[in-house]
Amino acid sequence: MIGHNLQRWLCLAALLLLGVSAALAEERPAKPPLPEEPFGIGLEGFPYPYPVRMFTLSEDGERLRMAYMDVRPKGEANGHTGLLLHGRNFPSSYWRPTIEALAGNGYRVVAPDQIGFGKSSKPLSDLHFDQLARNTIALLDEARPGACRQDEECARGGVRRHRPPAPAGGRAAVQRDDATLSR
C-alpha cells in the first residue's frame, strides 16, 4: 500500500515539475541570435563603439591598413589629444569607457588597432615593436592629433598605454619629442 501511494506522489511531482519547467521556459527572454558567419580576420561584424577609419601604410613592401577610432571631444574642446594604445590581444574597442571619459572632458581621442591586431591588417612579416612605434607615429602625423581648430589652443598629445604596458607606446613616446607618456 505504501509503495502504491509513493508511486502516485512521484507521478504527481513529476507532472508538477514538467508544468513549472514549461512555464519557466516560456517566460525566459530569447537569446540574441548568433552571427550568421564567424568574425573574419579583420573582425568583420564585430562592433566598435565609434566609427573606424583606415590608415594605409607600407611595410616590407606589403600594403597594410591600420584601423583607428578618432573621437572628437564632447562639448567644449580643451585642445588636448589622448592616444590610447592597446596591449597584445586587445582591440582598441577595449578603451570604450576611457574614450567616453576623455571625450566627455574635452579631449580628442585617437585609439588605433596596432598592425596585426583587431581590425587592422595582419602582415606576412614578423611584428616588431620598433615598427609598431613607427606606424603609430605615421598615424599621428596623418591624423594630426595636435592640429586644432582656429579657436582652440593646441597642446601636446599624450600617450596612454594599456597594462601590461604596450612597448610600442613607450617607443613611440621616446621617438616623438612632443608626446607625453603615462601608464
Protein model, in words:
This protein has one domain (53-182): Rossmann fold, CATH 3.40.50.1820. Helices cover 32% and strands 20% of the residues. The protein has helices spanning 2-27, 96-104, 129-143, 167-175, and strands spanning 53-59, 62-71, 81-85, 108-112, 157-161, 179-182. The chain is elongated and about 85 Å long.
What would CATH call the homologous superfamily?
Alpha/Beta hydrolase fold, catalytic domain
Our Rg estimate from Cα atoms comes to 26 Å
Number of domains: 1
Question: Looking across the biggest beta sheet, what order are the strands in?
Answer: 1-2-4-3-5-6
- Give the rounded overall mean pLDDT: 75
Low confidence ranges: 146-156, 160-165, 179-183
The succession of helices and strands, N to C, reads: HEEEHEHEHE
Short description:
The protein is an alpha/beta fold and 183 residues long. It has a single domain (53-182), classed as Alpha/Beta hydrolase fold, catalytic domain (Rossmann fold, 3-Layer(aba) Sandwich).
Observed structural traits:
single chain, 183 residues, alpha/beta, Rossmann fold, six-stranded mixed beta sheet, 4 helices, elongated
Helix/strand layout:
Elements: H1 2-27, E1 53-59, E2 62-71, E3 81-85, H2 96-104, E4 108-112, H3 129-143, E5 157-161, H4 167-175, E6 179-182
Parallel strand pairs: 3-4, 3-5, 5-6
Antiparallel strand pairs: 1-2, 2-4
Helix pairs in contact: 3-4
